[in-house]
Amino acid sequence: MEIWINPACSKCRSALTLLDAEGADYTVRRYLEDVPSPGEIREVLERLGLEPWDITRTQEAAAKELGLKDWPKDAANRERWVEALAAHPKLIQRPIITADDGTAVVARSEEAVRDALSR
């Protein structure tokens, strides 16, 4: 299991605390420093069963600068969204846990972290 985190994020710290309390075996990826490639983002999206706009933090300054709220959310523009997430990793929702069974969850709640642990 791997968890993508921003150490400054309280939701990320809470997820790590719960993983530690449960004795989980996991790897931490500080995704702002070890930026995911477009291919890795596509893989995580497939594991999540989501589209790139579903995991985009649209209130970030970079999202506003890019005008993301006006970008079409369709198949024709999917790659544009993926490239934006790779170029501006702060836009990626966090934390994301990739579970051992090949799935993933956006672990913003205790319930979501426990879901990942149960897989």
Please give a structural write-up.
The protein is of the alpha+beta class. Helix content is 39%, strand content 12%. It has 5 helices and 4 strands. The chain has helices at residues 10-21, 38-48, 61-66, 78-87, 110-117; strands spanning 2-5, 27-30, 96-98, 104-106. Strands 2-1-3-4 form a 4-stranded mixed beta sheet, with helices on both faces. A hairpin with a 5-residue loop joins strand 3 (96-98) and strand 4 (104-106). Helix 1 (10-21) crosses helix 5. The longest helix has 12 residues, at 10-21. The chain is globular. The model has no long low-confidence stretch (mean pLDDT 96).
Shape: globular
Distance between the termini: 10 Å
Count of beta strands: 4
Give start-end ranges of low-pLDDT stretches.
none
Taking strands numbered 1, 2, ... along the chain, how are they ordered across the largest sheet? Answer: 2-1-3-4
Alpha carbon gyration radius = 14 Å
Beta strand %: 5-15%
Biggest beta sheet attributes: 4 strands, mixed
Individual helix count: 5
Roughly how much helix do the residues carry, as a percent range? Answer: 25-40%
Mean pLDDT: 96
Order of helices and strands: EHEHHHEEH
Structural class: alpha+beta
